[in-house]
């Protein structure tokens, strides 16, 4: 029976030939896991960026490392084998795809310009510290322990559907998009149904050459520490899960296709610096100097703790933040600067902490629900915030804000918000509706300022009393004995239904007829406005 694929990947596929002195040192050190340090001690000379000039005394074939990790040498009893190598120039590709690696790999200040391939592999801890690497591929791999690239430079990193049981570390790393020449292998296709262009993008067969990091479906059980990371080409991690949190403080990410990026692009790029729909994390820190040139998209994300953009710098030609349909316990939206619209639509936020100056002129808030607001805001600033929707008037943001003020016992502020809502709605009505709305607003503030009706009534009463005292009306029935009172007569005209029976007893004279008619009409308008306003105030709130 032929050996299984797993068995084939546990031994080197061909003889290694004669080992160089550097390779011999590594070969001899492997059984005990001892360090092999080929560095000179001069930081400038030992910088792997200039590793192409290192001589044969510091050169190791990548296939020798592959052979050791696949079991070419046995461990010594009572020791832990492993590859620990510093200051080496590794030639060729480090191919461990489909392998089951039981020992750790730790490279320090090494140069490996070829492809590092852990596709579909199962490995122990992998550490590349301060290295200059080519393309790194680890889709569908399992790393039992730490996966580290701290301080390293890479030409593309694929971690889609990978599982890291420990931490993922990319602090101070530099990741650029892969180059066309970095492609590994040939994509096998079904001749009956070849991939369409859209399918190739969805599978990352083409898009991988635009995105610096492609990590859709990645699962990291420990924390993902990407502090100080530099990415030119964008970070894609749709559906990734970070159970220990995602930390991108001081990171800088440039979208693929932007003028600052050197990668090729097409019309589908849309300037996404971070594309992380449906991401799940216990916490996510895009803060403390985090910089994104392009859209940061977290649509449908689930953050159990804090999502912070405190002191971040965000810019995009159209939309800087796309945070719609999220669920987050606390959102800290206090960036140092922001250019491009913000979308918070249909998200559910426990505590929203923000500042008035952070928002651009275009903010999508329709459907947003929150439990609490924190920050140095005034009611006027909050009203300016809810009316910035580029799609025009939306009632829900006003209702949500009014409900928040009511929950904290600020009923006057809630009424002020609802009055602003009615004024915003008025602009969407036909001319007759707008006219009636202005009457309601001017008379009683749409029912939210009922004291205005009393003010208008007092003004009309004073005016009518003064006029009819100076120009008394004529008694209609001279034979009836009545005593005229200008105040009572004016009040009877204002009341929609005659209470004091003054209208039918006295007839205004001359131009005062216009005043009498005005008082009658004003009385009906004020009464109708009060009834309509009361019905609106007493109507149950629809806020979430």
Automatic annotation (TrEMBL):
Residues 190-199 have a biased composition (Basic and acidic residues). Residues 1-20, 174-199 are annotated as: Disordered. Keywords: Membrane, Transmembrane, Transmembrane helix. The chain crosses the membrane at residues 451-471, 483-502, 514-538. This is Oxidoreductase. The lineage of its organism: Bacteria, Bacillati, Actinomycetota, Actinomycetes, Streptosporangiales.
